[in-house]
Structures are given as structure tokens and as C-alpha cells.
UniProtKB/TrEMBL annotation:
<dbReference type="InterPro" id="IPR051122">
    <property type="entry name" value="SDR_DHRS6-like"/>
</dbReference>
<dbReference type="InterPro" id="IPR036291">
    <property type="entry name" value="NAD(P)-bd_dom_sf"/>
</dbReference>
<protein>
    <submittedName>
        <fullName>SDR family oxidoreductase</fullName>
    </submittedName>
</protein>
<dbReference type="InterPro" id="IPR057326">
    <property type="entry name" value="KR_dom"/>
</dbReference>
<comment type="similarity">
    <text>Belongs to the short-chain dehydrogenases/reductases (SDR) family.</text>
</comment>
<keyword id="KW-0560">Oxidoreductase</keyword>
<dbReference type="InterPro" id="IPR020904">
    <property type="entry name" value="Sc_DH/Rdtase_CS"/>
</dbReference>
<dbReference type="Pfam" id="PF13561">
    <property type="entry name" value="adh_short_C2"/>
</dbReference>
<feature type="domain" description="Ketoreductase">
    <location>
        <begin position="3"/>
        <end position="178"/>
    </location>
</feature>
<dbReference type="InterPro" id="IPR002347">
    <property type="entry name" value="SDR_fam"/>
</dbReference>
Length: 238
């Protein structure tokens, strides 16, 4: 039977790779993003259903949830580095804006979307949220938001597991081929990140997509409330 899958932030990078993985398995996949042109283009290229939605907006995610009867898999992939705009703000106001941006993008998007579809999840459903190695390794406001994501996941798992729903976080290390660093990646920094791994390679979006696909499989039904580290061993080097 075809599964119904919702992926927030599914227009590029990790989110898109996960969407393509489930589409290849004949799932009916819905992807969301904030920009209509990007959503439309990605939907056309992948065969997913594209929905323009800011996952940090209660009104938008409520409308999104109305599209579904039952939902088999939710992937909270929306997120990113905080907005850098601080023109005209005092240092403390700029700091507050940065933290609000990090929490909104990387925590509240998952919290609000999951809450909106909670009653659509059934026995056998999976909630998968994309975290980061930055939660444990000097990630600033971004890392703090991802750490909070893991704490929220644990409590959400305790609430939903009796219903047969698993909830897990994939904590990604350095993943090449995404726009996460917004053009700020240098050869020196890339080399240092790769050197931290045990297998001496950058992660790929396919590494994360394969892990997400497994966590939504019958073989992972006793895995819940966990943070799964996918970083080539880099997490253990500090």
C-alpha cells in the first residue's frame, strides 16, 4: 500500500533527497517550502505534491494539515542558519533577533507541524526530525535550537509511542552538496570537517535520506525517542 509522506523544507538538500527516496518507493509525497517558484520547480522535477507553506506559521501549518486524512510519515526538514539582518538594531536586540530566528526555523517549525498533524498519525506512523551535530558542538543559537529539538522529540515520543507512532531525530554532521553554509564554506574549513571523521569523507544527502527511510520502515518500529548520529564518527572526536 502506498504511504503518504509529508516533508517540510523538501525543496532542496536533505529534504529533497528524502523526498526522492520515498517517491522511488511509490509513496505519495508532499513537500513544503516558503518560496512558490522553488516549490513549483521541485514538485515538477520530482513528482511530489508541492505546497507553499511557512512551517513556522500556525495558520499555514493548520491549513496544511487539512490536506490529509491519515499521514504515514512526517519529516521535519525545514531549518537553517539564523537570519543575519541586524541593521538599525542595538547589539542586544540583534542578538535576540538571531535567537528568535534560530528557534523559529529549527524548533518551532517541527513543533507546530507535528502538532498540526498529530491526529492524522496512526499506528505505524513515523515522525523524523533533522537535527545537527551542532547541538553538542558549539553551534551557538542554531545548535541550541537543535538541542532543544532533541529534547522535544524525546517528550513527543513518550506521548505518541503508545499510539504506535515513532519519533526520532537524525543528527547530521557535515553534509556536502547543500546550501546550508550559504556560500561561506572554504576549502580549509571543508578539509577540517572531513578530517574529523573516522572514514575521512563528507556526508551526503543520500546518507541522511537512507537513514530516514530506515527509521520509517517496519524494521525500526522499536526505535523511538532517539537521536541517531550520522557523521562518520566526527561526534566522538571531541
Amino acid at each position: 500500500m502506498s504511504r503518504t509522506v509529508l516533508i517540510t523544507g523538501g525543496t532542496s538538500g536533505i529534504g529533497r533527497a528524502i523526498a526522492e527516496m520515498f517517491i522511488a518507493d511509490q509513496a505519495e509525497v508532499f513537500i513544503t517550502g516558503r518560496h512558490p517558484d522553488t516549490v513549483e520547480q521541485t514538485a515538477k522535477e520530482t513528482g511530489a505534491h508541492g505546497v507553499v507553506c511557512d512551517a513556522g506559521s500556525p495558520e499555514r501549518v493548520a491549513a496544511l494539515a487539512d490536506r490529509f486524512g491519515e499521514l504515514d510519515v512526517l519529516v521535519n526538514a525545514a531549518g537553517g542558519l539564523p537570519d543575519a539582518a541586524s541593521d538599525g538594531l542595538s547589539p542586544l536586540d540583534a542578538l535576540r533577533a538571531q535567537w528568535h530566528s534560530s528557534l523559529s526555523q529549527n524548533l518551532l517549525t517541527a513543533v507546530l507541524t507535528t502538532a498540526s498533524v498529530r491526529e492524522k498519525l496512526t499506528g505505524g506512523s513515523s515522525v523524523i526530525s533533522i537535527g545537527s551535530i551542532g547541538a553538542e558542538r558549539g553551534g551557538g543559537s542554531y545548535g541550541a535550537a537543535k538541542a532543544a529539538l532533541a529534547a522535544w522529540n524525546a517528550s513527543t515520543s513518550a506521548e505518541l509511542a503508545p499510539k504506535g507512532v515513532t519519533c526520532n531525530v537524525i543528527s547530521a554532521g557535515f553534509i556536502a552538496g547543500t546550501n546550508f553554509f550559504q556560500g561561506g564554506m572554504t576549502d580549509e574549513r571543508r578539509g577540517a570537517l572531513v578530517a574529523e571523521t573516522h572514514n575521512k569523507r563528507a556526508g551526503t544527502v543520500e546518507d541522511i535520506a537512507q537513514t530516514a527511510f530506515f527509521l520509517a520502515s517496519p524494521g525500526a518500529r522499536h526505535i523511538t525517542g532517539q537521536t541517531i548520529h550520522v557523521n562518520g564518527g566526527a561526534f566522538t572526536t571531541r
